[in-house]
Amino acid sequence: MPNDYFQFQRFRIEQSQCAMKVSTDACLLGAAADLTGATRLLDIGTGTGLLALMAAQRHPTVAIEAVEIDASAATQAAANAAASPWADRIGVRALSLADFAATQPRYFSHIVCNPPFFRQSLRSPDAARATARHEAADSLSFESLAAFAAAFLLPTGLLTVLLPPLEMRAFERVAAAVGLPPATRLVVRHRPGSRPLRHITGFRRGAGPTRESELTIRTAENEAEYSAAFRTLLAGFYLAL
After folding, report:
1. Is 141 a member of any domain?
2. Which residue has the higher pLDDT, 47 or 137?
3. In which domain, by residue range, is 75 found?
4. How many CB atoms lie within 10 A of CB 37?
5. How far apart are CA 200 and CA 60, in angstroms?
6. Is residue 152 part of a domain?
7. Tally of structural domains, the chain
C-alpha cells in the first residue's frame, strides 16, 4: 500500500484522499517541464497538487492555478498547497476542465498535464481511480485537453504532457489538428537500451522540427541505482538520491 504522504525536500504531499498517488511519472514531468518565461501556469488534473508545487518551487514568481474534478482530491491538493512555502501563489479549483473553461480564465503561458491514458484497458472497480486513470467523456479526453490549450494558451505558450509512447502519438495528432505541434520530446527509459516508457512532450504554436532527447531512470550496471541524469533532474526534490 502506498504511504498516506510523500515527503520532499521542501514540501510534503498528503495523499490519503487522492486516487492517484505520487509517482515517478509525475515527479519526472514536474522536474522536466520547461518553465522558461513562465508567468501563469495551469496544472490540469492536479490530483495531490504535486505538479503545481514543483512548479512553484522551480519558478520563484509564476502564478499557478490547478483544477481537479474529484472534490476530495482537490481539497487535499489545496491543503498541500496551503501548507507549502508557496501558498500565496497556488490556487486549486474543484472543477472539470469544461467547467473551468466556462469561467473564461485569463490566458496561460504554460499548461502541464499528466492526462488519463489507459484508453484500451479495463476500468478499475474503484470509481475514483477509474476517473483518474481512464479517458472518458465525462472526465478528461485528449480532444478536450488539446482544445482547451489551443483556446487558453498565450500565442507563445507551452503545453507539456506526459504519456506512454503509443498514447502520445495519438495525442500528437489531436494537438496538431488544433495548431499545437510537438516542439520537444523527452524519451524516458527505465535503463539504457530498454524500450521507451514515457514521452514528455512540449507543444506550441508554430513549432518546427521536434527536438528529441532521452533520459534513463536507472543505470545499466545496477537496476537499483538511479542514473546521473535522473539524480540531477530530481536533486532539488527527493530526500535521498
Report:
1. yes
2. 47
3. 10-181
4. 13
5. 23
6. yes
7. 1
